[in-house]
Amino acid sequence: MNTLYSKKHTGSVMGWIVIIIFILIIVGGILYYLSTQNGAIPPGVLNNNGNSSATSTPTPTQQTATTTALASTTSAGVPMIPYYTLAIKTSPTLGQYLTAADGMTLYVYAHDSNNKSACTGTCSVIWPPYTVLSTNALTVGPHLAGKIGFITRANGTKQVTYNGAPLYFYEKDIKPGETLGNGILGLWSVAKP
Fold it and tell me: Residue 3 belongs to what domain range?
């Protein structure tokens, strides 16, 4: 009888162990899938775009362009691995403009004021803010003499500014160097160094 009880009890414990391992595998698979989607995380899983309906109240912190490290987001507003760059790209039609580390074009919004973002809610979904995880520093490319700063958005994220202008990506720019957002509604333009 003791042998029968031990076998039943062992089977029950083994069953729970199998269930726990199965759950861990599923959670690990979901996390792996999300990490490989280049920022295509389903809505509601990560809200790093400043999607508050309230106007953000930025707190500016200015620093002169220097070379140091920073954690950043992709153009979809999803956190990337640390150490990113603010750099200059040149276009035959647009001249020089600013890009993020991944080569994606950065934009400025005409309705923004110095160190204050007016792009919230739906606007910040179409125009994701260029946010950083740390405001300690930023790796910048050569020939950037302007002031790099950070504002705190209503959702607590830190948005990068250049000469006081908050910087954004455009959701329809898919490849590095695309400038599809330039001139939209006469309010958006590539960020100039």
Answer: 1-36
Length of the chain: 193
Contact 60, 151 (CB under 8 A): yes
Same domain, 96 and 5: no
Give the CB-side neighbour count of residue 162, counting CA atoms within 13 A: 27
Residues 21 and 65 in one domain: no
CA 48, CA 7: separation in Å to the nearest integer? 51
Residue 51 pLDDT greater than 50, yes or no: no
- Which range of 73-82, 86-95, 103-112, 151-160 scores highest in mean pLDDT? It is 103-112
Compute the mean pLDDT over every residue in the chain, rounded to the nearest whole number: 74
Residue 5 sits in the same domain as residue 99: no
- Chain segment 124-134, per-residue pLDDT in tens: 999 999 998 87
% helix, strand, coil for the chain, step of 5: 20, 25, 55
Q: Rounded to two decimals, what is the model's pTM?
A: 0.60
| Angstrom distances, CA of residue 121 to CA of 43, 55, 70, 118 | 13, 9, 26, 10
Please tell me which of 71-85, 129-143, 152-166 the model is most confident about, judged by mean pLDDT: 152-166
β strands within the chain, DSSP E? 61-64, 85-91, 95-99, 107-109, 131-132, 139-140, 147-152, 158-162, 165-166, 188-190
- Give the Cα-Cα-Cα angle 31, 36, 37 (nearest 5 degrees): 105
